Amino acid sequence: MSWNFVIYKAGKTSQTVEPLGNLDRVTDALNGSFIDLEWESPASAVLPAEAGFRLKLTVQNRTVHDVYIDGGFNHLRQFAGLCKREGWRMADAHDREDVDLGDPQRWYNERTAQPTNRGGSGRPVSTAHARRPARRVTAWVAMLLILVGLGLLAFYLWRLLGK
User: Are 36 and 93 a contacting pair, CB within 8 Å?
Assistant: First the structure.
């Protein structure tokens, strides 16, 4: 089964994030947790074993901002341990719900035990973890509505003054 995650570092507020750290430090931490990791480039790696995963690091000026994990379900406990050691967080890449690093297997089991309209594996968003992304989405929607309103106002004025 494939499941995608993102590793990030929370910022000073619930709506901000910080970089994970220097590229060398982050790759050392990943290599320490997964000794068979094969680096295809400085920003991407694969664990080629059966039920392995792919990593993609978002890097800017040798600073890693987040790590995207494609298919990390089978290594959930290892990733959770890494995140706890490093002070990072891990979230479901689709729902943006934080994984319970203290008990990632229970977190996963709760999401797969319930039916959903998403590919047969249920993942309800708990209110405790959904607040942070929900505020971010609300801010984007509000900004989009304001931009659409300004565009309509500009169009109306252009039509009004053009006559």
Answer: no
- Assigned token pair, 128: 């405790």
Q: What is the pLDDT of residues 104-158, one digit of tens each?
A: 888 888 877 755 444 433 333 333 333 344 455 677 777 888 888 888 888 888 8
Long-range contacts, 87-90 (Cβ 8 Å, 24+) = 87/9, 88/7, 88/8, 88/9, 88/20, 89/7, 89/8, 89/9, 89/10, 90/5, 90/6, 90/7, 90/8
Strands (E), the chain: 4-10, 17-18, 21-22, 38-41, 44-47, 53-60, 63-70, 89-92
Q: What local confidence, expressed as pLDDT, does residue 110 receive? A: 84
Tell me the average pLDDT across 30-52.
Answer: 91
Contact by Cβ (8 Å): 129, 98: yes
Multiple choice CATH, 4-125, 3.30.310, 3.10.450, 3.30.470, 1.10.287: 3.30.310
